């Protein structure tokens, strides 16, 4: 099963936090949820691969996304979300925001923008590979960033539509931030590997 393919590396030696986690996308299954789910196999095929990394220290947070085996030459929106992935695409919640918009979901460009949220939009190449990186001068609040959701189209930026990118077509639960919750998520993935 795809969950067994998850690979986690955690840096515990220095005050920096880093995690790199990879998996294959699977269909949602109520019996056993994979950490990487596809809700639209035409746009994110079963068995396609995803890797998410986070590196953070006292000065910045970097989040990276890499995908393989997706349809060629296609643009997707991708963002860090507040909920973990589940059977339904909406289970991942809303976009993580450093400065929270009092209205949710946010479509106000003052809040829904790539400086206040983690946007990882990408376009696949002829081989179906894509990647993105986002850097911020802030860190995730513990337990509030739980997944990367991949959307069907590039993220909009205009008033009233800022941050929207269409349907969530795939989701990957990620242990962001060096928190107790992240440690539990890493331990859960490691227990599936070993």
Automatic annotation (TrEMBL):
Cited InterPro entries: SOD-like_Cu/Zn_dom_sf
Family annotation (SUPFAM superfamilies): Cu,Zn superoxide dismutase-like
Single GO molecular function: metal ion binding
GO terms of biological process kind: superoxide metabolic process
Coiled-coil ranges from the UniProt annotation: none
Family the entry assigns: Belongs to the Cu-Zn superoxide dismutase family.
Name of the molecule in the record: Superoxide dismutase family protein
Organism (species): Streptomyces rimosus subsp. rimosus (strain ATCC 10970 / DSM 40260 / JCM 4667 / NRRL 2234)
């Amino acid at each position: 099963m795809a969950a067994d393919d998850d690979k986690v590396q955690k840096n515990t030696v220095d005050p920096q936090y880093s995690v790199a986690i990879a998996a294959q996308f699977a269909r949602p299954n109520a019996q056993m949820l994979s950490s990487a789910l596809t809700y639209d196999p035409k746009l994110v095929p079963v068995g396609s691969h995803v890797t998410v990394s986070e590196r953070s220290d006292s000065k910045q947070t970097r989040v990276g996304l890499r995908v393989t085996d997706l349809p060629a030459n296609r643009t997707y929106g991708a963002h860090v979300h507040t909920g973990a992935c589940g059977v339904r695409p909406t289970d991942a919640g809303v976009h993580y925001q450093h400065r929270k918009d009092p209205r949710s979901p946010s479509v106000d460009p003052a809040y829904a923008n790539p400086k206040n949220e983690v946007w990882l939009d990408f376009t696949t190449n002829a081989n179906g590979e894509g990647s993105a990186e986002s850097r911020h001068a802030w860190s995730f609040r513990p337990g509030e960033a739980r997944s990367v959701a991949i959307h069907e189209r590039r993220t909009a930026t205009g008033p009233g539509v800022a941050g929207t990118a269409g349907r969530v077509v795939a989701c990957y639960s990620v242990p962001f931030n060096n928190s107790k919750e992240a440690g539990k998520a890493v331990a859960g993935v490691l227990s599936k590997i070993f």
